[in-house]
Fold this sequence. Notes:
Elements: E1 11-18, H1 22-33, E2 38-42, E3 55-56, H2 58-66, H3 70-76, E4 78-87, E5 90-103, H4 106-120, E6 125-127, E7 129-134, E8 146-152, E9 155-166, H5 173-178, E10 182-197, E11 205-209, E12 216-221, E13 225-232, H6 241-252, E14 263-274, E15 278-279, E16 282-284, E17 290-291, H7 299-323, H8 328-361, H9 367-380, H10 384-394
Amino acid sequence: xxxxxxxxxxxxxxxxxxxxxxxxxxLGVLLAxxxxxxxxxxxxxxxxxxxxxxxxxxxxxxxxxAAGVAETLKAAGVxxxxxxxxxxxxxxxRLEFDPPVxxxxxxxxxxxxxxxLAELAPGALRRGVHAVGLGKAxxxxxxxxxxxxxxxxxxxxSVAGRWVVxxxxxxxxxxxxxxxxxxxxQYPDAYLMGDFADTTPDGAAxxxxxxxxxxxxxxxxxGGVRRWVVxxxxxxxDPTPERLARLVVERTGLAVDPxxxxxxxxxxxxxxxxxxxxxxxxxxxxxxxxxxSPIGGxxxxxxxxxxxxxxxxxxxxxxxxxxxWESDGAVAWPALRARVAEGRRRAAAEAARHAALxxxxxxxxxxxxxxxxxxxxxxxxxxxxxxxxxxxxxxMQS
Length: 398
């Protein structure tokens, strides 16, 4: 884990965040807004323009409001106020989302957070800096700092912080450097996903087509675009817009124009849960700590809730060092951090269970079993209490 790099001559900040995606940027904003000297190291030289994650659930919007960007994103996004389930063209259930889920392309969310970070801490985001591991003071709690080893333009650099936060994704190099075990589960499900011009009459509704060949999901995006997600028998190794459009029309009867495709992706599902979110002075958040199925769109919001939980603790600790405070509160912080980390791990495990149930409901079924299951759903969702419970589960209320 260590490299023998000495701490002399190392660039220093109060908090070093590795990963400039939506979660790392959000934490950077929350810390900078508290007056913390923060740097965000991002390996990508440019922001991806793919829509990728699109769902912002109500608690995520709360965190983004604290970051000062919620209103900007609400003005740019589409509020999903309703969910509909259909099968063979017939309605199975209808749910109201109150408060709604906001649909915004990930690139726009990142752009908005990046602009906010630049307002609060100009130059805090450093692109093209690829973290490769931890230095001598990192991870084991030695000294009072952690050190990130990184490549910047082909040269190795070392960046130290009172805290290092790994927001560097599901295959987190920093998590690997720390040797934190990961519980991993590979699901049998595969999906083909794409964004196309919206030619449906569904407006701001999210729609689930529960079909015998497998689920077809669709969600509105800004600019008259709709995302389609189709369950497939196996991973599509050569996905095309034409293939996705054909699957949609075969299962739902709805036409999709492949010429309007702006994003296409084929993927399988892997669930990962790190055994710990804290090791020495390194904190794991977002996918580095817990990767859940993208079906249900809860992963990004989970990461923002991590940022919300840890930002005040990191800031308070940094201030204690900065101003030389000695108090009972300082003694209690390690236990408090551990308690927050365990709470976040429990929340991730719950989200993973919900995602697993969502995937199970979308798998192929023989037509007779599908019809019987849908009949049960129609009966259940006639009860307001069931509709309300399901709506809350799909929209992550806390």
